[in-house]
Amino acid sequence: MRKIIHLDMDCFFAAVEMREDPSLVGKPVAVGGSAARRGVISTCNYEARKFGVRSAMATGLAMKLCPKLILRKHSGHLYREASDIVMDICHRYTNLVQSLSMDEAYLDVTESDLPKGSATLLAQKIRQEIFDATKLTASAGIATNKLLAKLACEKNKPNGQFTVSPDKVREFMTPLPLGKIHGIGKVSAEYLRQQGFNTCADILPLTRFELVTRIGNMGDWLYDACRGLDDREVITEWERKSLSVETTFNQDLSDPEEMRVALTDLIAELQEGLTEYPEKKIHGLQVKIKYHDFKQTTIERAGMAVDADNAWLLHLERWANDPRPVRLLGVGVRFVSEEETPQLSFDALTMTG
Length: 353
Ligand SMILES: [Mg+2]
Known about the structure:
Layout (H helix, E strand, L loop, with lengths): L3 E6 L2 H9 L8 E4 L8 E4 L1 H4 L9 H7 L4 E3 L3 H18 L3 E5 L2 E5 L10 H16 L3 E6 L2 H10 L5 E3 L5 H5 L12 H9 L5 H4 L4 H8 L2 H8 L16 E12 L2 H19 L7 E10 L4 E7 L5 H12 L6 E10 L18
Parallel strand pairs: 2-4, 7-8
Antiparallel strand pairs: 1-6, 1-7, 2-3, 5-6, 9-12, 10-11, 10-12
Helix pairs in contact: 4-5, 10-11, 12-13
The protein binds magnesium ion.
């Protein structure tokens, strides 16, 4: 049985800003692009959340909800510096660290030297070391797989941790609202609600077959997820085969101009992420589009550089054939594996879903 820790810094960017400028403490603070430039909020602190401000929300809307919101621009170098320290601390205890973003990682500590054999104690130790080194708080979830660890991490946030022991999995999952499960967004949750499914308790009595019959392929995955089953491995950076970022919109986008702006933001985020992998060769650019009915399509073009214009071209090429409102957009790259030679043809068009 694996021992997995999901570690997540608490409102990371906003926390760094508050550390740098203590006069911000106790006030609603967000980091993001300006409303004038149709920016979005990337992180906000708990004071801002009380007003309904959320990450990925348009800054204009955030300012309406919370007129006193203090908006800060990205201090990229400071976040990077803190992130490097956090990831270094994680690597002291295991090589199996999968960073999901600058401030979030899965650690497989199954083979680690655990204090008194306890991953729970190790998580405490890591959080303390992070605080000592950065003056920033982290939360942690501890469990036997990634799905449970991530859910557990939410339980005592901020600056807390929670362990789901193997004998408590059923108890932990049963009352959980389906929307809390990573992979079920607002729209999917609403769809499930319409089917009469609110919490895992509503799913558990159904057989796998019944579930697939009622809600399609998603049912297969949901059957396992509601039982806290997940056998995905922690993938380290060395093995990383792709990198992508995506945004689910609070309201479906139907204006192409809004999609273009969103793609531009996503490309900037992807480019920043790619600076972590200077040694990797990129196969090409990918754009992912998801519609509100879960139909999903991915366009990939080998040899295409990661920039906003290219992402927009790829997007248009596919979206123009199916110009309906979009609930999620993503951009990504696949890395060229050691054995694979870089393809520079422009004809590798793939479609999934
Ligand atoms: Mg975080």
